[in-house]
C-alpha cells in the first residue's frame, strides 16, 4: 500500500467516524440565514449564534444595493446549496429609488418570501427600519402593508419599533450605526429564541 493510499484510507476512516456526529450536530442545531440588503451588512452571524446558546447556527448574507426583485437572484445559491431551515428576509430598502408605491413594495417582499418557501423551512420577514430621509413615511406605509399581508399569508414578521431614525442611523440617514446594528441583532436574537 502506497503512502497516498494510506492517507486516503485514514481520511475515509475519519470521515466515516465523524459523519454521524456532524449529521447529529446539524439536525440538533438549525441553520438560520439572514438574507438582506445593506441594512444587515454589519451583523455578525458568529456572535448571534453564540448569543442564542447555539440553538441556531446563524449566517448573514448581505447583498448591498439589492432591490427586492434582484434579491431572488442573489438568494438562489444559498437556497440551493445551504438549504437553510430558517430564513429571515430583510429587503425593500433600495426599492424606494424605483419610485414604487409602498403597497407594491410590500407585495413584492411577500411574493419573494413565498417563492423561497419549501415544506421544510420557515420564512420570516423583517420589517423595514425607519429612515431619516424623505422616504420615512413610505417606510411606515410599507410596514403597515407588510403586517397585513403577513397575517393573511401566515408569515412571521419581525418589528424594529425600538430603532429610532434620530439616534440609530449613520449620517446618510439610511444605514444603521453601531447602536442601531446592535438593536437589530437583538431583535433577531429575541425572535429566534422564541420561535419554534
Description of the structure:
The protein contains six helices and five strands, in the order αβαβαβαβαβα. Helix 3 (68-82) runs parallel beside helix 4 (102-116) and helix 4 (102-116) packs across helix 5. Strands 2-1-3-4-5 form a five-stranded parallel β-sheet, sandwiched between helices. Mean pLDDT is 89; it is low at 21-28. Strand 4 (122-126), helix 5 (136-153) and strand 5 form a beta-alpha-beta unit. It has helices spanning 3-28, 45-51, 68-82, 102-116, 136-153, 178-194, and strands at residues 30-36, 56-62, 86-90, 122-126, 156-158. It is an alpha/beta fold and 196 residues long.
Percent helix: 40-55%
- Element order: H for helix, E for strand: HEHEHEHEHEH
DSSP strand content: 5-15%
| Mean pLDDT across all amino acids | 89
Give the overall silhouette.
Answer: elongated
Q: What Rg is obtained from the alpha carbons, in whole angstroms?
A: 19 Å
Q: Strand order within the widest sheet? A: 2-1-3-4-5
Would you tell me the structural class of the helices and strands?
alpha/beta
Number of helices: 6
Amino acid at each position: 500500500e502506497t503512502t497516498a493510499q494510506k492517507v486516503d484510507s485514514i481520511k475515509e476512516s475519519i470521515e466515516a467516524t465523524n459523519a454521524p456526529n456532524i449529521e447529529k450536530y446539524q439536525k440538533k442545531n438549525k441553520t438560520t440565514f439572514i438574507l438582506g440588503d445593506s441594512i444587515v451588512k454589519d451583523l455578525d452571524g458568529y456572535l448571534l449564534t453564540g448569543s442564542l446558546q447555539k440553538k441556531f447556527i446563524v449566517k448573514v448574507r448581505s447583498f448591498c444595493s439589492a432591490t427586492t426583485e434582484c434579491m431572488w437572484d442573489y438568494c438562489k445559491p444559498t437556497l440551493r446549496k445551504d438549504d437553510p431551515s430558517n430564513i429571515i428576509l430583510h429587503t425593500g430598502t433600495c426599492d424606494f429609488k424605483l419610485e414604487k408605491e409602498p403597497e407594491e413594495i410590500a407585495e413584492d417582499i411577500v411574493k419573494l418570501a413565498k417563492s423561497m418557501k419549501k415544506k421544510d423551512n420557515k420564512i420570516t420577514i423583517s420589517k423595514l427600519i425607519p429612515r431619516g430621509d424623505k422616504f420615512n413615511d413610505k417606510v411606515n406605509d410599507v410596514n403597515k402593508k407588510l403586517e397585513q399581508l403577513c397575517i393573511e399569508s401566515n408569515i412571521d414578521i419581525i418589528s424594529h419599533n425600538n430603532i429610532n431614525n434620530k439616534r440609530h442611523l449613520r449620517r446618510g440617514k439610511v444605514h444603521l450605526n453601531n447602536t442601531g446594528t446592535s438593536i437589530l441583532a437583538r431583535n433577531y436574537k429575541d425572535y429566534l429564541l422564541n420561535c419554534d
